[in-house]
Each structure stands twice: as C-alpha cells, then as structure tokens.
TrEMBL record:
Belongs to the LIMR family. LMBRD1 subfamily. The lineage of its organism: Eukaryota, Metazoa, Chordata, Craniata, Vertebrata. This is Lysosomal cobalamin transport escort protein LMBD1. GO terms for molecular function: cobalamin binding. It is found in: Lysosome membrane.
Length: 535
C-alpha cells in the first residue's frame, strides 16, 4: 500500500511536470513573438529562440525539484520512509543525475553548436542573400571554432585529475592509465562539470552585468510607472512646431538666390531627420493613447505598485543574504586555495533563517526557492531588455517589442542559458546547507542522554554524509576549487553593481511610455509593426 501511494505521488508529480512544461513552452512562444521583428522573422531562428529559452527555464526548475526529491525520501523524525530503501533512493538519485546530464548536454549543444550555427547562417543570408549551400558552409566554418572550444573543455575536464598521487617511481604509462581510470569512474561527470563550470563563469559575468541591474530597475520601474501618453504627445507636438520654425528660419536665408552655407545645409539635414523622428513618435503615441492595452495597464496600476514593492523586498533579501554569506566565507573559510568553501554556517542570513521556519509548513520552502530562482530569471530578462546586447563598450543589438532582430533574440537566449547555469551557485551561496540536503534531518547517538535524539540542522558533517542524501546539484558545483574562488569574487561584484543600479534607478525619472520604441535609425515601415502590436 505504501509503495502504491509512493507510485501515485510520483505519477502526480509527472503530471504536474507535464503541465509546467506546457506552460513554459507557451510562455516562451509568447515572449519570442512579442519581441521579434515581424519583417525579419525567420522560422529557424524563431524555433531556436523558443527552444533555447524553454531549456533555460526548465533547467532553472531542476534545483527546486532536486531539493524536493532528497527531502521527500525522509520522515520529519530523521528516518527514511518505508519505500525509500537503498535501491529506490539510488534510482531517484540516478534519475535526477541523468536529468542534469541531459539538460546540461543540451545547453552545451545550444551554446556551442546550434545557436552559433543559426546565428552565422542568418548573417550569411543577409550578406549573400542567395545560395543556401554557401550559407550552410560558411555557418559551419564559423561554428567549428565553437565546437573546438567545447571539445577542449571536455578533454581538460575529463583527463586533468584533481588529486594526483605523489609516486616518484610511477611510470608515464601508469599516469596515463590513472587518467583513464578516473574518467571511467566518474562516468564523464568531471568532464561535463568542468565544461559547465567554465560556462558558469561566463554566466556569472552576464549576471553581474544584466541581472544585478535588472533586480534594481524592474521593481522601481513598476513602482514609478511611465509618463502619460497624452502629456508626451503634447510635448512632442511642441517639439515638432519648434523644429519646423527653425527649418523655416534657415531656409529663408536662400530666398534671394544665395546658396546655403555648408553649416546651414548640415543643420537642415539634422533638423529634417529630427522632424521625421518626432513625427514617428507622434504616430506611436497616437497608437498607444487609443489602444486597449494602455487602458488595461492604467487599470492595473495599483497591482503593479504592489508587485514592485514585493520585488524590491525580494531583491533586498537576496542581496543582504548574499552579503552575509560572502562575509562568512571571508572570515571563516580556508581562503583562496580552498575556493572559500565552508561546510557550516557561522554567520546566519535572512534566507537561512527563513527556510527552516517555512519547512514546517509544506511546501512553503519550495515555493520560496522557486520564487527566488524565477525572480532571478525574469530580472535577467528585464536587465537585458533595458540595456540591450553589449560587447564591452559597443552596443550590438537592442531588445524592443515587435522590432528585435533574429540575431538579438539568439544572443538573448544564449545569455539566459549562461545566467541559468550561474543561478544554482547563487542559490547555494545564499543557503548552502539547504541546497545540499533540503529539509532532511538525521539521527545522532548522544551518550550523554538516554537513547537516540533528533538533532535537526547540521551539527555534524560526518553524520550528514552517512544519513543524508546530497542533492545532485552539489555534485556539479564544487568539483574545481578555482571556479568556486571565481564565484566568490563574482558575488562581491554582483552586490556592488546592484547597489550602483539601485542608486541610478532611484535618481532617474519616469520612463517614457514609448521608451526605446522609436530611434533615428528606424524606418517608417517599423511604425506598422508597433501599431499592429498594440492593436
């Protein structure tokens, strides 16, 4: 009966997973269609963007699932459930591990093969505009460089041992044999972990750039709102009249037949370009002013303020917890050579205090972890949308509703894939014990008292290893100490960028209702795209 109940619970879990997967695919389709350019949309780039974005969201959902499964196999009193014998628990662990293998392999495939190939294929199509065979060959040629990097990372991770026995009389053949034995014993876990950790470092840089800013900009933008479309339209009309009068004054200089000076001609070109931009703004403002979407946004304005306050509270909770966790590592870890890893918690933080309290009421702790993970993802999206795609100081692409180029969408999805990889370590930094063991408790023999007593929490690391099951997430996090050291310094940079972004966002005024929708390099055809979006 207990086994049947466990099977029923697992079937229910799989049904819920199917519904979540369907919801993720629908959200990805809506998100991509919302931002992609109608004039430049391509089937292959659209499918690639939707698939990559779905993989990013599904991968982010693995951490709460992993924590839930290891916690679900034990009772609140610290004993294993009747159905969770060694074989069943091993099967569940292997299933989760294979899930990580599959998703992380798909991420490697997307980052190093599929997305680069589609990107370069589309670039060649714009340049050549003709032969498909030539486009495929050129795209494969450029993609080969990414494949080479991926192969190098896998080889380094597979055949560079972490612990080399110091045997002076060992031969070269014995050393090579040791490498293959380590590779075989880890079943490729070390190779995959090294590759994923390398990408996670890049994801850390993306999180510092985009997520830290998005965590401050998104809540404050929701709270402050946007300027009124009617007010902006009146200001825009005044600007049009002013530019037209300026043009008339300059052109009046040549009424007697005298040609305009080079300075005046340059001014006329600039003013005419400015006038075209202002008239495009007027058309966009007219569309927004009469659209049902604007009226709906005005109706839910109080709800936006509530969400903005909630998001800023989550951001402050996240940042304070990250600061205290990093400070704990700085004061109590073994230092740089150990990757600043600590096995216990000496300085508690708000999240570590909150999770044990929420564990008493199922499933509040999982809801909190899932909320933080999804908040991390959506603030990353907001940061990329507000800042655009940058390469150092060069702005490559903008993310705009109904006008985003296919290459920009591919970049956005690749950045999100990399940020998702870093999310697991960020959550581990906030609550290391919870990420390793979930809500598991264990039994300890205390000879100073009578019998066996339950010691909740993490009072003895050896007892944890013997009686508790470690999440599969942890296996990918701390294989290499130098990556952990890089994450530690990255956390400090993340906190600094968040505080700078918070100050900047507070000092900035309200955003324009058509912020980023109209640029001087837009064509008049782009007005039709935005009009169709709002109507």
């Amino acid at each position: 009966a207990k086994m049947a109940a466990a099977t029923s619970d697992l079937l229910t879990g799989w049904c819920l997973f199917g519904l979540v997967l369907l919801a993720i695919l629908v959200f990805c389709w809506i998100y991509v269609r919302k931002y992609q350019s109608r004039r430049e949309s391509e089937v292959i780039s659209t499918i690639t963007a939707i698939f990559a974005l779905a993989v990013a969201l599904i991968s982010s959902a693995l951490l709460p699932v992993d924590i839930f499964l290891v916690s679900y196999m034990k009772n609140p009193n610290g004993t294993f459930k009747a159905w969770a014998d060694a074989n069943v628990s091993r099967q569940i662990e292997d299933t989760v591990l294979y899930g990580y293998y599959t998703l992380y392999s798909i991420i490697l495939f997307c980052v190093f093969l599929w997305i680069p190939f589609v990107y370069f294929y589309y670039e060649e199509k714009e340049d050549d505009g003709g032969n498909t065979c030539t486009q495929v060959k050129s795209a494969l040629k450029y993609t080969l460089g990414f494949i080479t990097v991926c192969a190098m990372l896998l080889l380094i991770g597979a055949f560079v041992p972490l612990d080399i026995p110091n045997k002076k009389n060992s031969t070269e053949w014995e050393k090579v044999k040791l490498l293959f034995e380590e590779f075989g014993s880890s079943h490729g876990l070390t190779a995959l972990s090294f590759s994923i950790s390398s990408l996670t470092v890049i994801g850390m840089l993306a999180a510092i750039t985009y997520t830290a800013y998005g965590m401050s900009a998104l809540p404050l933008n929701l709270i402050k709102g946007t300027t009124s479309a009617t007010y902006e339209r009146l200001e825009n009309t005044e600007d049009i009249e002013e530019v037209e009068q300026h043009l008339v004054r300059i052109k009046s200089k040549c009424r007697d037949g005298r040609p305009l000076s080079s300075r005046d001609r340059r001014s006329v070109r600039q003013l005419e370009e400015r006038l075209r931009t202002l008239r495009r703004r007027e058309r966009h403002l007219e569309s927004i002013e009469t659209s049902w979407w604007t009226k709906f946004c005005e109706a839910i304005r109080p709800l936006k303020i509530v969400w903005g306050v909630f998001f800023i509270i989550v951001a402050l909770l996240f940042t304070v917890s990250l600061f205290l966790s990093n400070l704990d590592k700085a004061l109590h870890s073994a230092g740089f050579n150990s990757g600043f890893i600590i096995l216990g918690t000496n300085l508690t933080n708000p999240l570590n205090m909150l999770l044990p309290v929420l564990q008493t009421v199922f499933p509040l702790d999982y809801i909190l972890i899932t909320t933080i993970v999804m908040y991390f993802i959506f603030t990353s999206m907001a940061g990329i949308r507000n800042m655009g795609i940058w390469f150092f100081w060069i702005r490559l692409y903008k993310i705009r509703r109904g006008k985003t180029r296919p290459q920009a969408l591919l970049f956005l999805c690749m950045i999100l894939l990399l940020i998702v990889l870093h999310t697991s370590y960020m959550i581990y930094s906030l609550a290391p014990q919870y990420v390793m063991y979930g809500s598991q408790k264990y039994l300890v023999q205390d000879y100073s008292q009578y019998g066996r007593h339950l010691w909740p929490g993490f009072l003895g690391f050896n007892y944890q290893l013997e009686q508790c099951i470690v999440t599969r997430t942890y296996l990918f996090l701390h294989k290499f100490w130098f990556f952990s050291a890089a994450y530690y310094f990255g956390n400090w940079a993340f906190i600094a960028v968040f505080l700078i972004g918070l100050i900047v966002s507070c000092c900035k005024g309200k955003k324009s209702v058509i912020e980023g929708e109209v640029d001087e390099d837009d064509s008049d055809l782009s007005d039709d795209e935005l009009s169709s979006y709002y109507h």
